Each structure stands twice: as structure tokens, then as C-alpha cells.
Amino acid sequence: MYLHNRLSLVRCYDGSRRPFCFVTFIVTYFVMFIVTFFGAFLLHFSLRVGGWFSNGGSNVVDVQELLDHHIFHDLGENVGRVKTILVKNADLVQRDFSVREAAGPACTLFYIDGLSNNMLIDAGVLRPLIIDSVLRDRIAGSTDSGREHRPAGPHQTAERLLINPEVKFADTYQKAIDGLLAGESLLFIDGVDEALLVGTKGWESRSPGETATEVVIRGPRDGFTENIRTNTSLIRRRIKDPMFRLESLQIGTRTKTFVNVVYIEGIAKQELVDEVMTRLESIQVDSVLESGYLEELISDAPWSPFRTVKLTERPDVVAAAILEGRVAILTDSTPFVLVAPTSFWEGLMASDDYYSHFYLGTFSRIIRYIAFIVSLTLSSIYVMLVSFHQEMIPTELALSVAAGRETVPFPVLVEVLGMETAFELMREAGLRMPRPIGQAVSIVGSLIIGQAAVQAGLVSPIMVIVVAVTGISSFAIPSYSTSFTIRLLRFPIIIASGTLGLLGFVGAMFVITVHALSLRSFGEPFLAPMIPFQPSDQKDALVRSPWWMLKSRPWIAKDVTRQGNDQMPKAPKNNGSGKADLAPDEKASDGQSHKSAQGKPGSDHGDSKSSASSGQQKRAQPAGTGEQKDKTRRSRKPKKILGGA
Amino acid sequence: MTTKITTAMFMALVINLGFAKGIGLTQGIMARESENDIWIATILSVLQGAVLMLITVWVIRRRPDMTILEQFDAIVGKWIGKVMALLAFVFFLGAYIAILITFVYHFMDYFLPEFPVWMFVLAAVAIPVYAVFHGLEVTARIAVLGVFSIVALNLLIMVGSLKDVELDRLLPVFETGFWNTVATTRHYDTDWAMATMTAGMILPLVNDTKSWAKGAVGGVLYGGILVLLWPILECGVLSAPQTGHYIVACMQMARSAQVGLFLHRYEMIMIAFFGISLLVQLMLLIFCASLAGSHVMGMKDYRGVVIPVSLILGGSGYFVVLNHNRAMSLLTNNWPVIALPIAIGLPLLGWLLGLMFKKKLAAAA
Hints:
Chain A is of the alpha+beta class.
């Protein structure tokens, strides 16, 4: 009743309450609705008009509608449409001409200055259509009428006149403009409702040089560039296999970035390739400017600090990965190539592990594992011991630590966090500044500031040593992304250890381990082959076994046979007369080598080079059965050696 | 619950389940009863555990796609099945408390005596719950890591204490009597009971049915060998009366280990290894308690009850570990009485009922 009264009585301006008039309410509501509606309409209209004026009227036309349209017969209409779509593009070049010096149909060529190679346009498009077509007519004129040779459409033009090796046809403006913006030349012929896209791509690009992030002592010096085709050629140069596959797609509605997926059919699992393609094809973004975009869009664990896709700018690393059954994803405009699947341990492996002697490779690898543990835990262990478990430190060391910390006014946790942050700051500053200045910053930061901080009593000398060793250890990790992950994880472990002691340290490590164990990279466990333990892959995990022992590819490959049996080289037996007792094949090889050394025609290699190339040739033939083994052995015959050389 | 684990992973889980409490608290309790015969009691207990494990495997093998609780559902109906699930839940609750006692007293008494108890309990709940949400596969992988850490821990203790072993301290055998030694095995049986009850819950998630028995019994035996080192060292180095004086006998053992002059205290390294095994136990017990809890509630996915179950487990455990006397009294006097009837009774009942209602079990959906 109270509510009813409140609703049915309205308070008037004089303070009295009167019955609620329903008609008044409806009328008022209707008037408000009309006013609001027209207000919104006027606002919308004014914005549109403002848009017309501000954009010169170009946005009124829906560009997508124009792009979807079929190419016209009329050349003028086609030219007009292209200019409408690509309005205000100062680098769009238009060249009007006629085939056969005005005797043929009128044509218009469009290209983007800077994306297309002028020489190619001249030699591959303009010259054949304007000049060579006339010569061709003159030659053919003695037997046929010129009319029969007149090109009737783009296909005939492409077949008979254009000498450029790459010619495509576009029936819609979408295809035509896409090609034009990708660097191809767009050719319209009057009276023809198809356009020609001539492959004249050519722009300034960096030549393959040494990578900055993956430096090796021994190994190839070339690195990927920003040109995707250069990058694919760098891989193809290394893998001359007919089963090599390169699938292309464009990602990004506006950037239309070329992305190539590279693998070897038969070695890579088809499910893996399908999964990669599915993930890439499902990406719907407006732009892909670097492979980092793709990495985040196809990652198995987007919130994880661990990278489940490998990143490299070395062609040899990509080639090796492909040969192990992985899939590489190349993105145009970046030298960084993605490789999937990957495991955490790959971040601790360097490419020159495989090029150096296996003892050195193994030693370096073990050092890197130690570096990983030190980098992740040393600061936390120091904080934990000094803050909570002093009794665990040997007495002499405990006294040294105590003496060093005597003047330090901060708790150990604050001290470590401050030092680690300062170290990261110096690293970042050194990275962003020009190289000579960056080095100076590092030296000033590490030596002068560090020394001054110790002398001022702000940090203890042992703390400087701990942070420096931690930092150096993180530099020993070859993969920048793995190193970054470890740096990132170090901080929560330090905080947990500094606040909860051993409990915090164990808890933080356990949570990180659980998280890492739950990760997968394109379906494969991220911590394999350690966990789950793959006995067959241990030859190339903690240690790097010699190549003649690496008989099988990793677990991820479809075809795991990498090489034949009995690949271990054997020295010839000594027959007691001081000469080696060579096998018949090897004797022949020896003789042949001598001949070649004496200047046999067709060979300019010495013994050692021939032997080396024979070894390479032999390993290039995968052989698993006994018959294959025999073939492998036969490949050591001198004729093949010289042929191969 | 579709992810399957391998037999090796299952074996690793079994090894971990019998280890952490078995080397310390259990040995201390046993030493108070049968003195220097604890190593014999350990051997006898391992053999009993192997037999019980074999029975459990036989029961589950009848319907490899069903847990022991689901088999009860199929044979005796839903409501009696829920009662069985409740019994299993009670077992896992008690087992969790027993392991929580181990966890808290290791860390609190020997490393962080000034920390409040709730911090340890929070860690013992939050960290395993995080892992449980990732599923059994992740837990099983950590268990593999746990086995490596157990081996490392055993090597460390051997390196640090073999020089101090006096085998005379192990003799004479059966000093407190044969039957007393046999009776003492009940304490270590509660540890193996955790493994057999867990097997009853997770065996359907193990890949290869044929290798179940091998993996399960192998796990008990390998785990037994790894545990057996500790009572021998504890008696040989500390002596049985000393071992019986400590709540956490293995920590005292680890504290007395020394490698040279510089590494005179390395129990922290050992506890870091030990912690993995301990946390695996906690994870598995929360996982199995959640499975039993979801069965009682009639839920299909255990993840829905993980948080409430872990709160019940953690809350109960907190109450127990607050008082050392209460905790040790529970472990020594009450826990074997509660645990063993359930752990032995459920598989035997399952085996008997399965035998009687073979067709009904086979026909169940």
C-alpha cells in the first residue's frame, strides 16, 4: 500500500502530493524519445559530414566493396578504380603505354616505387611489350599476318610476350591490389577483364650476416635477414631433399605478411604440420610485423614465462631442427624464425655443440647446465642461508659473510633485490645504447658503481660476487629467451626464499617445476626427454654423444632413423711391417688419392679433403638395414669420392 | 580424467608414497617398540605391502576401467558405494594428516622453529592443490623426479654416514621377540596402505593393464629397498634407543652426516630432495581424497571438490600438528587402528564381492 501510494502520488512544485497522471507520463516519455532519437540522428549525420570533409570524401566509398569487384573490361575504369582505392599514395607509379608501339591495345602498368625493381620492370615488362613485340611482328610478318599475333588476353600476353618468369592473373581488385602492395607490377590491358601481376619484387635488404644473438665459435657465419625468400634459400641451400616442403600463407588483414611453414615430409609428423597450419590459419589479426606476434598467437601456454616455441636467426639451427622432424615458421620482414615443437633443454644447447669435438660439446653443455642452476638459484640460496639458516654455512664462510655485512644497513633480501635490479638496469641500458657507449655503461656500472657501493657500505662484497656470478651464468645460456625466462623466475624465488626461508625456496621451486611439467609444445612435453624420460634421446641431452652414436632422431620425428649402423670410424690395423693393413676399398681409395695428389685430371683436392667429402657423402645417406649398410660402405669407394668432390 | 600415465610413472608414485614418512617418523615409532629390529620389521612390512598391492591389482583388473569405489557402486549399489567412498575419504584424510605431520615437523623443528604452524599448513595445501589441478600426469612426472631425488638423498646419507656405521648395533635380531617385531610392522603397513589405497583409485588411469602387477609390486619392493637403508643406518649410527628418542629420526640421522670438514651440515640439501617426495605424497592424497569426495557427492569431475576437500584436510591437519603430543599420539596409537582395517578391508571386500557378483560387475556400465 505504501509503495502504491508512493507511485500513484507525485510531489508538485508547491510541495503538495497529487494523483499520478498516466497520460502526462506517456506524453512526456514520447516527447523525450523523439528528442533523443533525432538528437542521435543529427549527431551521427554531423559526424559523417565531418568525416567527408576531413577525409576529402574518400572514406565515403567502402574500399572493401571496390576490392571485391571483378576487374573491368575498360582500361579507364580499371585505372580509375586503382587510383580510388590507393588514393594519396605518393609512391604509386603509373605507366601508360601501348603494345607494339601504339599498334596494339593500350595498357597501364602500376607498381610501387621501392618495392619493385625498375630493371626488372624495364627488361621483363615494358621492353617486351613495347619494343620486342614489334620485332616479333616484323619477323612473323613474312609468314603470318600481324593480326594473328596480336595478344587477345592476359594469358596470351603472358605466354607470348612477357619474358618475366613469374606472372600471375588477377580477376578481382583484391588480388590485384594485394599483389601490387607486395611488390609485383600490376598490368591492365584495355578490353581485358583480367589483370596481370608480374613478379618484379625487389627492394633494398640486408645481406646475410653474422647473427648478434647467437654467436658461435665454430660454425657457419650466415644469419637470416628480413627477406623471407633469402631466408628460405638459406635453408634450401642446406637441405637438398625433394621431400622438403614449403607452404605459404598470408597473415594479417592489413599487413598481409607472408609466412612460410617449412618441414620435411616423412620426417615431420603430419599431425604436427597440420597442427601448426591450423594454428596459423586461425589467426585473425590486422598486423604481423614480427614473428613475436605469431609466437604469442600460437603458443601452447600464453600466460607462461616459458617459451614453448623456439626462436633462432641461424639457418643451420633451422635446418638441423627440420632434419629432426620439427617445423619452422618463417615470417617476412624479420630474421627471427620460429621452430616447433621445442623443449626447455634446447635453450641450453648451442649449435656449435654439434660442430665441435663431442668432448668439448659435452663439456660446454654441462657448464651451461651448471650456469642454468646457478643463474636460477644462487641468489635465492644466499638470501635463504644468510637470512634464516646461518647454521648451514660453514663457520669460516659464515664469518666472512658476517664481516662483509657488518656495515650494510639493509636486510639481505632488500640487498639482493636492489643489486639484481641494478644489474638488470645496467644490462638493459647497455643493450639499448649504441654499442661503444653500451660497453662503457657496463664497465662503469659493474666496476665503478659496484666498488663504490661496497666502499660506501651499501652492499657487501660477497653480495657483489653472488650477483655477478648469477649474471655471468645467465650470459652463458645460449638462448636469449631461455635466459630471459630464468632471469624473470629468479625474482619470485628470491622473494619466497627471503621471506619463508627453506620452505619458500622449496615451495617456489616446486611450483615452477609443476608449471614446467604441465607445459607442452605442440603436443610434446616441454621437459622431455628428461621428464618424461626418453632413454633413446639421452645421447643428445645432458651430453652430446659423437655423431656416429647419434643413430636415431629425437622422439618427435616420424622417421627416427638418422644414419646407418656401425658409423664409428675404424683405423686400419697394423700388420707388423710398419704399414697399415688397409681394407681393399680403402687401399683403392689410398691409391686413388695418391693419383689425385699427383695431379689427376678433374681433381684439385688433396687426400684429406677427399676423405672429408667422402665422410659427408656417406652420412648423407640414411641407412638402417644391412643392405643399406653395405651401400654406405660402398660409398667410400674412390670413384664416388672423386665424383662427389 | 582421460589422461593416462605409464606403468613406470605409476611405479614412481608408489615408491614416493612409501618413502617420506617411512624413513623418519615411522622408524622412530617402530624403534620405540621393537628397538634394533626395525629393519626386520621394515622388511616384513614391505612383503605385506606387496601382497596387499597384489590383491588390489587383482581387484581392479576385473574391471580395469573402474576404480575400486566404482566397482563397489556397480556391485552393491549407489548408497553403499557412497559409504565405501566415505570410508576411503576418511582414510585419505588420516593419511594426509600423517604426511602433514611429517612435513611440518621436518621443516619447523629443524629449520624454521619461529615460523607459525599455519604457514607450513598453507604451503602443504596450496602447493599440492596447484599441482592437483594440473592432473595426475603432472603429479606422476614429478614422482619420477621424486625417485631421482630419493636416490640422491640415499646416496648423500650413505656418503655422509657409512663410516660411522657399527653393524653390532643391529644385533641381536628379534631381541624384543618375533611377534613383537611382526606387530610393529603395523606402523609401516600404514605407509604401504597409502600406496595400495591410492592404487585402488588411480590404477584405471595407468596405461598398460598387463604390467600393472609388475609395476605395483615392483614399486613396493624397490621403494622398500630404498627405505630399508634408513633403519639400518639409523640403528647402525644412532643406535635404536637414540632413534626412538626422536620424533623425526631421519633428520637427526641427516644432521649427523658429514662429508669432510667443509660440508659438515648438509641436511638442507637433503631436505630439498626429500621435499619433492613429501609433496608428491601430499599431492596424491589430496587427489585421491578429492576423487573419493566427488564420489560421495556424486560428481563426475573431481576438480569441483578439490578446494573444499583440501580445506577439510588442511584444517584437520592444522588442528593435529599444533600439538606435538597429540600428533604423535595419533600417529602411534590411533592411525594404525583406523588405517589398516580400511586399507585391508576395502580391497578384500572388493575381491570377495567381485567373486560373488562376477556377472553383475561385468555387466555394469
